[in-house]
Structure formats: C-alpha cells, structure tokens
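Q: My labmate handed me this sequence with no annotations at all. I'd like to see what the chain might look like in three dimensions before we decide whether it's worth expressing. Could you predict it?
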Amino acid sequence: MTTLTICLIICALTVAGFIWGKFSMATVSLCSMILFILTGCIDSQSALANFGNSNGIMLMSMFVVAAGFRRTQFVHMVSVSVNKLAKGSLTKIMAAYVIITIILAQFIQSPVVVIGIMAPMLAATCAEINISPSKVMYPLGIAAIATCSALPLGSGATVFAELNAYLEANGYTDYLVTLTDPMLCRFPIVIVCAVYCIFFATKFAPDQPRCNRRTGRKTR
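A: Here is what I predict for the chain of 220 residues:
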C-alpha cells in the first residue's frame, strides 16, 4: 500500500470521525495525527512542530482580541444598527455581514484576522435577536476564506505579478497574466459563496453548538 493511499484512508477516517460526533474534535484530530506518525506518512518532529506553529498562536491571539473587542460599546452599536435595518430577518443580517466580510477579505490578506473582526459583531447581533451563533459562524468563516484576495483590490492586486513570476521561473514567457485574469477565474466563486452563505448555509448549520455526548460539554 502506497503512502498516498494510507494518507487518503486516514483522512477519510478523520472526516468520518468528525461527522460521527462520538468523540470530541480534539480526540479525533490527535488520533489522526498519531496514525500519520505510526504509518510513516509524517515524522514525529514535523507533527509536534505544529503545536508551536505561528498560525496557531495567531489564531489563539485573535480569539483573545475578539473576546475583548466584543465587550466594547462599538460592537453593541453595530449589532443594534444591523438589527434595526434587518428587522429581525436572519437572511438580511447574513447579507450585511457576508458582504462586509467579502470586502474586508480583499484588503486584509489573512482570513483569520477578518473573522476576528467580524465574529464578535455577528455574535452580538445574534444575541440581540436570540439566535444561536452556531447558525452563522461557519458561513462567516466560509465567506472570509473562500473570497480572500479574489478581486484585484489590496493584496489581490499583486496576484497576477506573483503568477507571472512563477511562469517566468519555469521558463514559460509566451503568456502573461493580466491584472484582471485572477478575478475572472475567482469572481464566480465569490458570487456562489455569497449566495450560499446568505441563503442556504444557515439552514444546514446546527441550532446549538455540538456537544460531547459523554460529558455533555460544548465543544468548540
């Protein structure tokens, strides 16, 4: 059995474990990592190095910043304003936050930062109309990640130059990528993503955060 086949099997088991929900996400993730090490797909040093990865530290830091940001008066004012405009409609609320998220994702290259900015305000808005944040946070994350730098604005304006550098490095100079070429490829994804997050994603999201069946505690 090849290494690729083993990796695919472990990945499939990991996805199945997340869907099954019998064990917490942390347990499934750690078991998956151990299987990767035992089967030789990755070495132990590379696996353990991820615990000190700068992205993980940045993610945890953003949660701290987001928690503090949520306590400010600005977040409360935004949530009240959005609720007045949306008149309690979850679809209108998602439309407002998804559009703002997509705009921010064009100028801020890190989706984690975008989510850290938008999540506290969306959570406060949900609290105003008694909607569980679990209905909206996943769609918000999709909007930030899938649309990041998709348009030729901010960091997205440099994508064509990066692609041309790759082509030149590989000796291909017959064609040059223009400023709008990456946008033409990704703009349909932005539209589909926005429509899904606004009108459909909230219908499939859980009404309450998933709980560990053994302990009854909410898993994050």
